Structure formats: C-alpha cells, structure tokens
Amino acid sequence: GPVVPATATCTLQPAEVMAGEPVKVSLTSANFNPKRTLTYAWSTTGGKITGTTTSADVDTTGLTPGSYTINGKVTDNGKGKKLTTAECTATYAVKEPPKHPPTVSCSANPTTVKSGDPSTITCQGNSPDSRPLSYAWNSTGGRLAGNGATATLDTAGAPAGPITVNTTVSDDRNLTAAASSSVNVEVPPPPPTSSKINEVAFPDTKKPARIDNAAKAILDDVALRLQREADAKAVVVGEASADEMKKKTNKNLAAQRAFNAKQYLVTDKGIDGSRIELRTSTADASKTEIWLVPTGASFTGEGTTVVDESTMMKPAKPAKKAAKKKAAAAPAQ
Description:
Elements: E1 7-13, E2 16-18, E3 23-30, E4 39-44, E5 48-50, E6 55-59, E7 66-75, E8 85-95, E9 103-109, E10 112-114, E11 118-126, E12 133-139, E13 143-147, E14 150-154, E15 161-171, E16 176-186, E17 195-201, H1 213-228, E18 233-238, H2 253-268, E19 276-281, E20 287-293, E21 304-306, H3 325-329
Parallel strand pairs: 2-8, 10-16, 18-19
Antiparallel strand pairs: 1-3, 3-6, 4-7, 5-6, 7-8, 9-11, 11-14, 12-15, 13-14, 15-16, 17-20, 18-20, 19-21
C-alpha cells in the first residue's frame, strides 16, 4: 500500500504567560518505524529552551511582550534515504504586564511649628511593579526644598494657619500617585507694648494740681484696669503748660500733678504704690497722661524724666474745722 508519511504534533501549556513564567511543550509523533530509535531537538524564537526528549521547558525571563514560536523536530536512525524526520511548531504569547500605578503616603514632623521653624516631610513611595520612582513637590506656603522622598518646609515669614505640602510620585511609565500633608504654622503674639489709656485735665487755675471729680472718675477706671491686670504697671506722666511754668510757684507743677494722681490711686483706690511710676514730660499741656505697661513690656517714655517722690508734698486735705481754714487756703503744690 501507499507509504503514510511520519508526522509530529507540538502542544504547549500555557499559551499565554507573563515574562518569567515557564512554558512546557511536548511532541507527539506518528507513523515512524517502531523498530527505529527516535531523537528530539528543540528551538525557540524567544526564551531559553531545554530538553532532549518528547518534552522541553522554556524559560521566558526578560522577554518583551509579543508572540514566540517553538520548533520541535523528531528524527529516526534510518540510513541514507530511509532516514525519516518530522517537524512541528507551536506559538505562545508573552503578555504585557499590568501597569500598577505607584502608591505614596507622606507625613510631616512636626505637624505644628512656630513661624520660622522648619518641618520635615517624609514620603514612602511604592511601585507594585518594582519600577523606579521620582518625586515632585509643591506647597501652598513657606519655601519647600524637596530632595527625593524627603522635603524641608521653611516657614520663615509664613502667616498663621495650615500649609499644605503636595507630593507627586511618578514611575518611569509616567504612572503617578499623590499625597498631601499639612503643617500648621503658629505665629506668636506680638510682644506686649505700653499704651496710653487716659489723661487727666487740671482746669482749676487756683489749685492747678488738684484732682477734681472728673479726674477721680478717670482714675477710678485706671484703678479698675490695674486690678483686672494684676501684673501690669502704670506710668503717670505729669505735664504743665508754658504759661503755667512762668509762675515760680509752679516750678514742680508737672511732678506734683503726677504725684497727686498716684496718691489718689494708692490712698483712695488701694493700688500698690510700687506698681505706679511717676515721670514728667516737657509737653506744653495742663494734664497728666496715664500709661499702662503690661507684664513683659517696657515704658520707653522718650523725653520723660523720672520723678523723685521723696521730695514731693502730700496733697492738701480739705479743711475739716474752721480753725484750719487759713492753712487749707494755701494752694496745694
């Protein structure tokens, strides 16, 4: 009868792999002379194939995505024209790996700073596909210096409130992830300063240092303020006008006005005298200024002179009895 040609059939498993996954191929032959010895040879257009029997293994490590062909060849040991061979092929595919974007998480340390102090932002980026990562930085305030996965936020001059630091991580395929962290900036309150809280007028030309009812009402408010702000001090600055200073008897009028105001605060309102400093100023005015000096502040008082209270007269008390009227009539200095 007619000669049936020898054949070979190749089958492989699996037909699709990710680079690095193995492929197994096997060859089935038919119609060879059963008395002869068969040998097998394998080749592939991609990967590394090993095997000298009816099956072989392909290592696909490092293959780029695409289609690859395996060739199997079976040969018997017939001599000359009687040598018989058959070949087969099978194709497998290396799939494009899934592209997983990176992930990133960031934290600031410290999360709250005083304006001018730095905070360090540290990020942890991860690529599920083990791709190289790069970092980009920006912030809503302050000055940010980013170096890789770490950045320093300089808050010099930043106003109070939160600063948001944004970090974007990218892999070499431009897949990205973003995270933000917040740094709260605290601006310390400005240092306390002394302030003028009121002034007392001296309209009585006969007794130009007299603390009248209007003056007492103002000093009552000053006393309340000093009681509420127990750590504050007061500076009382006496002044006298140029016209008043023409009279020799008014030589110490500015100091006496300040002294009389203090006496009222101490004697009538119970304020500790050590909390009240007396000064005079050369301002051309018939008045005394009251300044409040909170704790931590100082009174600059340019152009003022500290009063030596040991030289001061106590203000005259109004006469109680007729016999003392004469003495009391002398103008209080």
